[in-house]
Amino acid sequence: MPHPLPALIVIDVQRAFDEWEAAGKRRNNPDAVARIVDLLAAFRANGAPIFHIRHEGTKPNSSFLPSRSGYAVKDEAREQDGEPVIVKRVNSAFIGTDLETRLRASGITTLVICGATTNHCVETTTRMAGNLGFDTRLVRDATWTFDRIGPDGDAHSAEEIHAMTLSNLNGEFARIVTAGEVIASFAAK
């Protein structure tokens, strides 16, 4: 039987990203973690399922190695008792994990995705969720990314990358929503 509530998938809200910022990398959406905190509070208040995803680096210089400070989750987004933590080693939270099995076993059909970064693990997980047939919502103001240099040396701002990622996913893989819309949907039930 389908689960009546959506599941919140919180991707890679880890300290490595704070370290990148401190080292001079520029990001967009500075309020994203605050919106994730709002989503966590709403899902908890409504008894809706929450799954925390952590990235475990595999390369020797990765900021996400378990032995490094960047692996730790940001305090604001820490899991509570009973909220599963799923560790992944690639961009998709579905590859090499039991996330899909857990979701299907619980009858969960709707996913609300937030976290970091928009164009990496969030995008890859969102694409796969859509391909796997989940009713997927990506929370535009609860995810962020960083400036990047393209293969031709062109500079791309975090805002530009974020907007393009949302455009690529919209309609085909997910519905793009705001944290406020997700929270309001609980009141409508």
UniProtKB/TrEMBL annotation:
Residues 7-179 form the Isochorismatase-like domain. Coiled coil: none annotated. The keyword Ligase does not apply. One of its GO terms (molecular function) is hydrolase activity. Keywords: Hydrolase. CDD domains: nicotinamidase_related (cd01014). The keyword Hydrolase applies. This is Hypothetical isochorismatase family protein. It comes from Bradyrhizobium diazoefficiens (strain JCM 10833 / BCRC 13528 / IAM 13628 / NBRC 14792 / USDA 110).
